[in-house]
Amino acid sequence: xxxxxxxxxxxxxxxxxxxxxxxxxxxxxxxxxxxxxxxxxxxxxxxxxxxxxxxxxxxxxxxxxxx
Length: 67
Description:
By secondary structure, the protein is mainly alpha-helical. It has helices at residues 12-39, 45-66. The mean pLDDT is 87.
């Protein structure tokens, strides 16, 4: 039989940080959705840079959250 390994519970500060990061990723995804809708009306060079910056930051936060 295999025995279940008991893992330590995360400290409260780490759990709070993970929750805050989850909320940041969620709001970033909402912001990206709004930016995609706005891009249909106002397409310009600075807007593309802002969109790329937001997309990269959201992807990095999601990657960090999954680790």
